[in-house]
Amino acid sequence: MGDRWTFVNVLPRSGWIHTVHHGKRTKEEAEQCVQTIKKNSDGEAPLFLSDGWKPYHDVLESTYSHEEPVPYSGRGRPKNPIRVVDANLRYAQVIKHKQGGRLVDIEKRVIRGTEEEILAIIHTEQRGQTINTSS
């Protein structure tokens, strides 16, 4: 048990399930899911809300970014390109803290964007009033 996960992407305005991906909870499976989300959408970074699982951060930034070359200064070895994350990527985490199987605290972390920007998206899409993973 516990070795299968379902990654789900729900469209905020309609509540329609956009992407479902079944697999182990690994970075590679998360990459496949996020790549599918990007492929099946307009390519622009949507709002992502997740739990505090660390690989999501890297997966989202690698999927919604591109490399830009660094101009050669004329001296030494040319520099490696820099990764530029999509300026429209908005990402927040909802971390549930439990003790003895009981919920004791819910922590909200804004990773990309501001809390005001994320709340504005949630309000515009009419899917709730606060940052959470169940809307």
Key terms for this structure?
135 residues, alpha+beta, 3-stranded mixed sheet, two-stranded antiparallel ribbon, 3 helices
Please describe what this structure looks like.
With 135 residues, the protein is an alpha+beta fold. The protein has one domain. Helices cover 24% and strands 34% of the residues. The chain contains three helices and seven strands. The strands form three sheets. Strands 3-6-7 form a three-stranded mixed beta sheet, covered by helices on one side. It has a two-stranded antiparallel ribbon with strand order 1-2. The chain has a two-stranded antiparallel ribbon with strand order 4-5. A hairpin with a 2-residue loop joins strand 6 and strand 7. Helix 1 packs parallel to helix 2. The longest helix has 13 residues. The protein is globular. It starts with a strand and ends in an 11-residue tail after the last helix. The model has no long low-confidence stretch (mean pLDDT 84).
Number of helices: 3
Give the distance, in angstroms, between the N- and C-terminal Cα atoms.
27 Å
- Pairing-aware structural class of the strands and helices? alpha+beta
Main sheet summary: 3 strands, mixed
Question: How would you summarize what this structure contains?
Answer:
With 135 residues, the protein is of the alpha+beta class. The chain is 24% helix and 34% strand.
